[in-house]
UniProtKB/TrEMBL annotation:
Family to which this protein belongs: Belongs to the UPF0735 family.
NCBIfam families registered for this protein in UniProt: PRK04435.1
Origin species: Formimonas warabiya
InterPro entries linked: ACT-like_dom_sf, ACT_dom, UPF0735_ACT_dom-cont
Stated name of the protein: UPF0735 ACT domain-containing protein DCMF_04360
Domain ACT: 71-146
Cited CDD domains: ACT_PheB-BS (cd04888)
C-alpha cells in the first residue's frame, strides 16, 4: 500500500465535472449548508457513487493570503445606537469583526477597542478611520496596531 501521495495544483477548468462537483458537495457539508451527503450530492447534481469515488482525492486550495488584523481604539458618546453605527460602518466596507471590548462609560463617553480582519476591506485604514469619525457619536478613532 502506497502511503506517500503526490499532490498537484490544477486549474478547475481542466478537471472532470464529477471531481468539481465532489469538491462543491464537500464544501456544502463542511460549511453546514446541508446535513447529509445525499442532500449535498442532490444540490450539485452528482451521483453518490461519484462522490464516494472522488471525495478522498479532492481538496480545496486556499490561496495563501495575508490576514491583516487591525486594532482600533475609539471614544464614543454614551448613547443608544452609536456602537451599532460603528459595527454597520465596518460591515459596509467588508471588514470582519474579531473582537469588541467596551469599557464602562465615564462622563458620558465609552472607550471601545475593535479588532478586525481587514484583508478584504474595500477601503484602506486611514479611510476607515475617517468613516468612523463621520459616524454620529464617534468622538475619536485611532489605529492602535496592525499585523500583516
Amino acid at each position: 500500500m502506497k502511503t506517500n501521495r503526490q499532490f498537484y495544483i490544477v486549474s478547475e477548468a481542466i478537471l472532470p465535472e464529477a471531481v468539481v462537483k465532489t469538491a462543491k458537495a464537500k464544501e456544502l457539508l463542511a460549511k453546514g449548508k446541508v446535513e447529509t451527503i445525499n442532500q449535498a450530492v442532490d444540490l450539485v447534481n452528482l451521483s453518490r457513487s461519484a462522490f464516494y469515488k472522488y471525495r478522498d482525492g479532492i481538496f480545496p486550495f486556499y490561496q495563501e493570503r495575508k490576514e491583516k488584523i487591525v486594532t482600533i481604539n475609539m471614544i464614543l458618546d454614551h448613547r443608544s445606537g452609536v456602537l451599532s453605527g460603528v459595527i454597520n460602518t465596518i460591515a459596509d466596507v467588508q471588514g470582519n469583526i474579531l473582537t469588541i471590548n467596551q469599557g464602562l462609560p465615564l462622563q458620558g463617553m465609552a472607550n471601545v477597542t475593535v479588532s478586525l480582519e481587514a484583508a478584504q476591506m474595500q477601503v484602506n485604514i486611514p479611510e476607515l478611520l475617517e468613516k468612523f469619525l463621520t459616524t454620529p457619536g464617534v468622538l475619536k478613532a485611532e489605529l492602535v496596531g496592525q499585523s500583516i
